[in-house]
Structure formats: structure tokens, C-alpha cells
Amino acid sequence: MPFRGTLRVLLTAVLAALTTAGLSLSPAYAAVPVGQDVIISGYASNWYLSTDFQTVAEGQRVQIWDRDPMANNGAGSVWRLSPRGDGSYSISPSEPYGSNPRFCLSNEKAPNSSGEGAVWVRRCNSSDSRQAWWISETSSRSYVHTIVPVNDTDYALGPYRGLPAADTYVNVTRQWGGTPSTVQMWKINPA
After folding, report:
1. What is the pLDDT of residues 120-136, one digit of tens each?
2. Could you tell me how far CA 50 lies from the centroid of its own chain?
3. Residue 67, helix vs strand vs coil
4. Which one, out of 55, 135, 146, 152, has a CA that is 20 to 30 A from the CA of 79?
5. 123: left (phi > 0), else alpha (psi -120 to 50), else beta?
6. How many C-beta atoms lie closer than 10 Å to residue 141's C-beta?
7. CA distance to 25, 26, 30, 90, 191, per residue, from 187 (Å)
């Protein structure tokens, strides 16, 4: 019994010393997985980001969906993140390897206007800032990210009115105080 008490005191002292030195035992931040197929799912709900009709086509809304993301060979539920020159990313429904993405997520909310804004799949345009997204680590949890439109950084990708229910459209929703809510946190994992 005295050994356990001594070990506990020793471990507590080591952790305190590491913390004081600015070191942490939490996992390292994971890099955004680019150049591969990924599944983007809600951190709280585990439901998947998907195009409205689970297809790779222009003019669709984006939603969270609770069905198998690999249905229809993953069409509309498997994504590809492509780096842009300014450190932001384009987010595209995945297409066959070797082909350039034709369609990208687009924030249709007017910058600096109030209220939520719809997110649509539109033809990719590298000069369109509505298709540029900051993807940042939300916490030290591996692969938990916040997806923020470059042209409106007070907002983040999240379900309509913060309702994490299946078959709910995804909008850009306000980050109150610059902090994402749980429904604005996304896991990005290889497909």
C-alpha cells in the first residue's frame, strides 16, 4: 500500500512539472487529410455530411445523413479536400482518382449578413471565395475539426438551426463568441 501512495505522488509531480514546462501528454494534432477520400461526420451525432441526393452533381444542398455513407459507392458522401494557395481548402464530392474535382461546397450566405446561409454544391471555381474553407483543429482530439467559410469567419459549417437530426440541411451557422458549438465540430477520417 505505501508503494501505491508513493507512485501516485511521483506521477502527480511529473505531470505538474510537464504542465509547468508547457508540455502536454495529449495527442498531437492530426493534419487535415488531403489527396485522399474522406468521410466527414458530425462529432456529436456521427451522422455523415452528404449531398442531398447522394450523387456527384451540381445544384444540390448538403445535409447530414444517418444511412450508410458507402451506399451508391460513396457518391455524395465521400469527400476530397484540396488545398488552395492561401492555406484554405476546397471541399468536393469525391470523384474517380486522377480526375480534377468538378464540384465544390459553396457558402451561399452573403458575407457579413446576419442569419444562417445555405451550403450548395456548385461547379468549382478557384477564384470564388465562397468555395474556400478554413479547416482547423477544434481540440486535441484527433480528427475533430471546425469548417469555417473564408469569407465569413464568424460562422461555421453546422446543421440548420443547430438541430443534429438526420436528413437536416447543413448551413453556415454563427459561432457565438468565436467558439464552435458541438454541432459545428466534424470528424474527418479516411474513407
Report:
1. 999 999 999 999 999 99
2. 12
3. coil
4. 152
5. beta
6. 15
7. 21, 18, 11, 17, 12
